[in-house]
Amino acid sequence: MKKELQFKEINKLTEEHYQLLLDADPSRKMLMNYTKRSICIEARQEEVFSGVMLLLPTRPETIEIINIAVVKQFRNHGIGQRLLKCAQNWAKQKGYRVIEIGTGSTSFGQLYLYQKNGFRICGIDKNFFVEHYERPIFENKLRLRDMIRLRLYL
Ligand code: ACO
Ligand code: ACO
């Protein structure tokens, strides 16, 4: 039987949250910067912490999923997809019209997941990961340089 998944808005993040959020964004400095301005939603599966995401209002009527991560042993069981749906419902309820997400050009799995869930590519932040990160990032045997930006109209 499928385990029940619950989502909850969190006011105070713990080290457990930060450790997981660092899986999606390796820069603690960047993370600390946007965490303060974001809404945090965590996912628990029968009380067990299993995922987290941060939603950042960026423009009038627009909110960005600035960070999303699922605990390693629970990945590939649909929790990421459920978090994306939860973000959409939350944003709609709060009156947002647009939801955005950005990911690395080398993050093929993530690009698949976001497009599968209705996000469409709307831009490229060239050299984002070169200019904003102290150390080079490698993924899928490639140097990560550019950020792909995606958008969904609610
Ligand atoms: N590589 C390949 N395929 C993937 C990946 C991946 N990294 N992530 C998801 N998928 C596919 C799954 O195979 C699945 O495919 P299917 O529907 O055809 O079976 C589909 O996408 C749905 O996947 P879920 O199980 O819902 O995703 P999951 O619970 O694993 O969560 C997430 C996805 C959040 C990306 C997770 O892999 C993770 O925490 N990764 C590390 C952190 C990260 O990369 N976060 C995103 C960075 S971008 C940002 O934060 C804005
Ligand atoms: N999916 C996943 N990985 C691929 C793919 C693919 N479709 N094509 C190549 N790769 C990877 C290989 O796994 C390999 O990875 P590695 O270096 O880590 O081992 C690397 O890319 C190099 O692959 P090659 O063996 O050199 O590529 P191949 O001889 O298979 O040619 C091509 C690639 C031309 C895309 C071939 O798969 C093909 O003819 N596909 C059908 C037609 C097509 O899609 N053409 C491109 C359309 S875009 C355009 O024409 C401008």
UniProtKB/TrEMBL annotation:
Gene3D superfamilies: 3.40.630.30
Keywords: Acyltransferase, Transferase
The keyword Transcription belongs to this UniProt entry's keyword annotation: no
Keyword Acyltransferase part of the UniProt annotation: yes
SUPFAM superfamilies noted in UniProt: Acyl-CoA N-acyltransferases (Nat)
Span of domain N-acetyltransferase: 5-154
Single GO MF descriptor: acyltransferase activity, transferring groups other than amino-acyl groups
Coiled-coil spans in chain: none
The protein's name in its UniProt record: Gnat family acetyltransferase
Source organism (scientific name): Liquorilactobacillus uvarum DSM 19971
